[in-house]
Here is the input.
Amino acid sequence: MKHAILPFLSLAALAVGQVTPPPIPGTPQIIQNGNFANGTTGWQSSPPGTIMNGMYCMNVPAGGSLGSNTSYLTTTYQFLETKNDVYTLNFTASSSVGYDILVQTPDPPLDPNLNMTAALTTSPYPFSMTFSPANQAPNTTLEFLLTGPPRAATVCIGNVSMKRIDRSAWRQDYGSAIKVNQLGYLPNGPKVATFVTTNIAPMNWTLYGNTGAVSASGRTRPRGLDIASSQTVATIDFSNFTTEGTGYTLSVDDSTSYPFSISSSLYESLRADSLRFFYQQRSGIAIDGNLVGSQYARAAGHVQIPPNQGDVAVPCQLVNESLIAYLEPWTCNYTLNVTQGWYDAGDQGKYVVNGGISVAQLMMVYERTLYTNTNVSSGLGDGSLRLPERNNGIPDILDEARWELEFMLKMQVPANSTRQLFNGSMVDMSGMAHHKMHDNQWTPLPTDPSQDPKRRELHRPSTAATLNLAAAAAMAARLFPAFDATFAARCLAAAETAYAAAKQNPAILAPGTDWDQGGGAYNDNDVSDEFYWAAAELYLTTSGQQYLDDLKANRYATANVSTLFSVPSGFSWGSVAALAQMDLATVPSNVSNHSAIVQSVLTAADMLVAVQQNSSNGYGVFLTTWPWGSNSNALNNVQVVATAASLATNSTAYRTAALAGIDYVLGRNALAQSYIRTYGTKNTQNVHSRLYAHELSDLVPQAPPGAMSGGANQAASDPPADDVLQGCAPMTCYVDDVNSYSTNEVAINWGSALTWVVSWAAGQ
Ligand SMILES: *[C@@H]1O[C@H](CO)[C@@H](O)[C@H](O)[C@H]1NC(C)=O
Ligand SMILES: *[C@@H]1O[C@H](CO)[C@@H](O)[C@H](O)[C@H]1NC(C)=O
Ligand SMILES: *[C@@H]1O[C@H](CO)[C@@H](O)[C@H](O)[C@H]1NC(C)=O
Ligand SMILES: *[C@@H]1O[C@H](CO)[C@@H](O)[C@H](O)[C@H]1NC(C)=O
Ligand SMILES: *[C@@H]1O[C@H](CO)[C@@H](O)[C@H](O)[C@H]1NC(C)=O
Ligand SMILES: *[C@@H]1O[C@H](CO)[C@@H](O)[C@H](O)[C@H]1NC(C)=O
Ligand SMILES: *[C@@H]1O[C@H](CO)[C@@H](O)[C@H](O)[C@H]1NC(C)=O
Ligand SMILES: *[C@@H]1O[C@H](CO)[C@@H](O)[C@H](O)[C@H]1NC(C)=O
Ligand SMILES: *[C@@H]1O[C@H](CO)[C@@H](O)[C@H](O)[C@H]1NC(C)=O
Ligand SMILES: *[C@@H]1O[C@H](CO)[C@@H](O)[C@H](O)[C@H]1NC(C)=O
Ligand SMILES: *[C@@H]1O[C@H](CO)[C@@H](O)[C@H](O)[C@H]1NC(C)=O
Ligand SMILES: CC(=O)N[C@H]1CO[C@H](CO)[C@@H](O)[C@@H]1O
Ligand SMILES: [Ca+2]
Ligand SMILES: [Ca+2]
Here is the structure.
């Protein structure tokens, strides 16, 4: 029995019990002539049947096994099933001999989206089955697989009805009109809230302590229209109030904020919890319930114990699949052991490109402690995190980073391997890194990683992945020598080999067409920034002249600041020049134009502070657009401003701006939404993740404390978003629904932005 379908089985159990799920109203009927009022139109069966008392009845011969199709009833027309939508199927059925049948919506060669058993009894029983398709199925049918009664049976089926979930009653929840950082504020930091009001005159605000006593009061500052939310707002600045405490609330008129703290240890638990997300995303190791809670304990994922097919000997894509991805039949003739690493996001694929920025940000958290007066042992050192490697003599944050690095190293194409197809030619790709590895089709939500039965496949090497490996491994090579010289040397060799291979093959790009067969594309047409980053990290580690020459010849060396730092949208997995620039500015080296590099960080930060202070920005967020995963873009901009604080003489201004920029993800936003699990009164509940799809199945938990959702997406598109977010203002394009992968997924590169920022803030 595959645990991958456990949630379905549990629903099937519901169906055969005396309980039916709550009714789902409305939406168009998918099944034509489901009550057989028009005879057998739209239906076909074996053996042929007749309509009796409004039901389609067949004399099914004895024998055969569940799921085989010698006897069946099926629709003759095809219909669409949308990936990650929710459907309910109702039907009434009886059999003169009690036995189990299988109900499917088949879509070969993919697994059926609906695959549930129904236990037939002699009296007609009303079945109701709710399911959420794993894969897009444009042309599926509904099939009752009737083979298998112990004796010949008369089976009757009637009132067949299937509809999409009806979300017409959904309303956006804007939360309290007074938007605060629901975790709270640092005593010596800025304390600003945003109040949604149509009143254009200043109003009185009051800060109450947890006993209800007045702690402070003042006047709001009307700000006019906040463009990104289409809300008229005023701000409340209570920065001067510094008394630590819990349960503070702000009030204006009859509006009251959610409670928050003022505490000098405000970000300490979030620093640790943000890293716990990475531990719980680990592949290839059992997750220890003693460390993170028994509800999160799980077996090692993808270690080739059935039903897993990976990740110990993973082949390249089959040519019929790669033809769709690359328009040519690429494959390879080796397998790789690519265990370990972190699952990328809500899925269980592993991507070198996205792994690169994520592991780099974790290493930057550590490296920062070497060059600022911050002590790694507070919060990040050995024994500080809930990891299996605590107390092994190595800083825990580096232990976590190493889990991903080990995976990335394994994704490198072996030396002297056979040439591989690219653009019609056979190319030597030795030393490059495979772009990604993942299932060959999507699995349902939830799926336990150890129970994923799909074929795992390596996808074509890419220049971008190769440079991500080079950059991340080069960083590791300078951070690990004190703890594990052998590992550091292995990283350096891999980084240099990868860099040389990328120069040999500078334009093997990951195409946008390589998506939706069980994984995302992570396509990127500009790899100059990846070259710039890899050269920078290799130079900082080795002082090699070749890397410095390449760095200076790279077009990013002379690019303007907004290009280098992706201002104002924020750097991201595909735009990584900012990572290079921040490391060149902060890690000691002999780079000749060091002061110009430092100045570029300060200039980028000034541009971001200007965005924050713009009169149309009522929330103090470092964004003007809301792309997919916008919370990470906002936090990556905080990283730039916070880095400026360590480089500037007027560091207080940058520090204040960066701290205020964090408030956005913790609730100072148009929806008063804390996007971080368990932090804040109105925090995200239903992240899109196969590990944490509690909304679909009680058998799995909600996401753990510190997991951050991607957040508002002005181009949101997924089944819930398409239904409920039409015409939304960018900052409000968010729906806390497990199926909203475009607004509510979790991802390692978003978690790493959070980790960097809150690790910095915890030290303020
Ligand atoms: C299924 O049956 C329930 C209970 O009668 C009803 O409320 C619901 O609307 C039905 N759904 C469909 C898709 O027919
Ligand atoms: C009934 O089925 C016939 C074909 O068998 C079709 O022509 C007709 O339109 C159907 N009527 C309804 C009401 O669906
Ligand atoms: C029955 O199953 C066989 C083998 O799986 C398949 O080739 C055939 O098309 C199926 N027939 C129907 C009517 O579904
Ligand atoms: C469908 O369900 C049957 C019965 O539980 C099971 O044997 C079969 O493996 C399932 N098929 C898939 C593709 O999961
Ligand atoms: C189908 O549903 C209708 C309306 O609820 C009901 O009157 C009828 O008895 C049902 N037919 C069967 C065969 O269950
Ligand atoms: C606002 O506060 C001021 C000073 O505390 C007070 O004089 C005034 O009456 C208040 N206004 C309102 C509308 O409560
Ligand atoms: C905070 O206090 C300082 C010094 O008393 C004062 O200049 C400033 O206006 C106050 N700021 C706010 C927002 O009240
Ligand atoms: C891959 O193909 C090359 C060239 O045909 C051959 O020499 C090599 O042995 C093959 N490797 C494997 C693992 O099959
Ligand atoms: C695969 O890699 C893991 C982790 O490095 C290792 O424990 C395991 O032995 C390897 N398996 C094989 C077959 O090489
Ligand atoms: C690759 O080939 C070179 C010669 O072409 C040889 O020196 C080297 O040992 C080979 N490396 C591996 C890992 O087989
Ligand atoms: C920091 O000081 C520089 C130089 O005086 C100035 O240009 C910049 O705007 C200041 N930045 C902030 C955030 O105040
Ligand atoms: C074979 C077949 O029925 N193909 C259809 C699948 O669905 C798409 C989109 O709905 C149709 O355009 C095809 O004709
Ligand atoms: Ca450790
Ligand atoms: Ca790029």
